[in-house]
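Quick one, T. Sequence first:
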Amino acid sequence: MLSPTDIRDLRRALTEAGAFERHEARTWVELALLLAVFAGLVALHLTLPLWASLLLLPVTALTVTVAAMLGHEGGHRSLSRSRWRNELLLHIAFPLVGGLSALYWKDKHNVKHHGQPNVVDHDEDLELWPMASSRVAHERSGPVRRWFQRHLQGYLFWPLTSFLAFSMTASSFGYLIRRGRTRRGRDGAFWADVGCMIAHHVAWLLVPALIVGFWPAVGFYVAVWALVGVYLSAIFTPAHLGLPLYASHPDTWTLQIETTRNFAVPRWASWLFVGLDHQLEHHLFPRIPHGRMHVAEPIVRDFCEARGLPYRQIGFFAGLADVTRFMARAWDEQPVGAEPERAERPRLDASGDGAASDSDAAGALSPSAVAASLGRSPEPA
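Structure tokens:
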């Protein structure tokens, strides 16, 4: 287990190296350029013949993916010292561009995933219906799903990721509906989220339908966001799938390291990942801006090696292959510390006000909670 002194020393080394220095203007320029490129691509889709438009779709979807993922930085408040500018970036990129609720994302990602990555029944990224990412999930499935998980999910994992964006949009609406049932839940953040979600569908579906017709508009939307789902899965899943699963873990700092790995990609390609090729550094200190991850990398690597902790890196395509192999056998993966017999799944309350999501890695076992108990902030503001 890592001691508070270990984490304090690591944070000090990162601070002295400038890993927490923000470059807000550059991120806003990146977003503006990406949206301008996307607008130009849309114009091309309107003028090109169908076959050429189809060939252009992967480029269009990649542009949208990178633009939307800049919101990840706003969600962790690593963009700016200004809270409202972090929220502005988050809302432009996620609910407005991406159709993904900012409040839902904070709860799912900041609280449940960052708080306890790869911990069954806590990390919702492990819930991949109709697939199973562990023996626990497999045993809770019905007979048809269990057959599917044993025989087909390894082959169909990547095709099924094309539904990810639509699934998260549906979950976003479900989350907002549950939150909106209480007067306390219908606050300013709720209405900002709802307004951006509505504007997303107006801009992506209603306006294009009035210009080019209903079916071309729907077809373009479905094609782009199906590819975005595949791209997002390629970015996120190799960081954790294939690494140890836990039923629980006594030390959240060590948990972040044991369940996370980086992509070894060229520096120029790192821009496409918005810093998420450095998942290990990001999980330890989510407020490191994506443009400073390369500064943190050698410091975190030396820190891990000096303490006998794994510092894992894998090539991009090797990571995709490893995820594919893992999903073929995931139904039989027993989480460390899990009881072999079937158990009832505890209910997770996702109807909170999202306040805890503003921390760098909120949750009962999160680094921010540990830092707060020591009377200090998780990272420099």
